[in-house]
Model the fold of this input.
Amino acid sequence: MMHGYNVSFDKDYLLVLSGVLLLFSYLGESVGVYRSWRLGKFSLMCRLLVIVIALCFLIMLTVLFIFKYAELYSRVVMVGWFITSVIFLISWRLMVREIKRVRRSKGLNTEKVAIIGLTQTGMNLHDEIWKHDELGFDCIGFFDDREPNRIVDLEPKLIEGNINQAIELARSGDVQKLYICLPLLAEQRIADIIQQLGDSTVDVLITPDFLLKNLMNGRIGSVGEVDTISVFESPVNGMKRFYKRSFDIVFSLCAIIAISPVLLAVSIAVYMSSPEHSVI
Done:
């Protein structure tokens, strides 16, 4: 594209490239663009990627405009660069996703998963595992201590064994991930499971119900020796406060500079049309 518009890749474009890469690294790490695919939705990762790239180019173009360097760069090349970056990075992720899907359909790089608790939350997790085979999870079934007549609205034949059997499978290494889908009311049972697996290599994860999910974003604090979890609290704290403050200052400065010609024109018009030649 640069050759087509008789534009050479000189030190000016190299400087912009370096700036965009630094911004992308900073923002991408902040929002978790490169976290494990098994920890998030692929569609959400792609949306975050596009947003981060757009912010990087927007910030860089704003800086160039403020310091009057924008005329040194071809607008067609910059727009084409942005579109090409988005297409390339999304295509790369789609290709990697398909490669992972093929490999894991052949049993390569897969992890065996067991679900403790035949609950609605557990069923939702089970359905998502089968829906997203690119995650590489092989669910061996549910494990629950309840009698079949105590299970309502769910199929008891899905149960492969009791909870102690799931713990033994985890301790022996036959299961790499153990999802606990018990309600929060079974606090003591959950604590017993976690305690028994404390010295094993299995990954133990709790799938939150409605109440626990509301507490997941809560900040852990303490009052003396008593631990607390925030239910309603300002979401801006720690490094998030720094990020927000930095964004507010930079964005406000850019916005003021961008609309300053309009404000100046309005002030001149008011001054010229006022009998007392006063802006206020």
Remarks:
- The first helix runs from residue 11 to 31.
- The first strand starts at residue 111 and ends at 116.
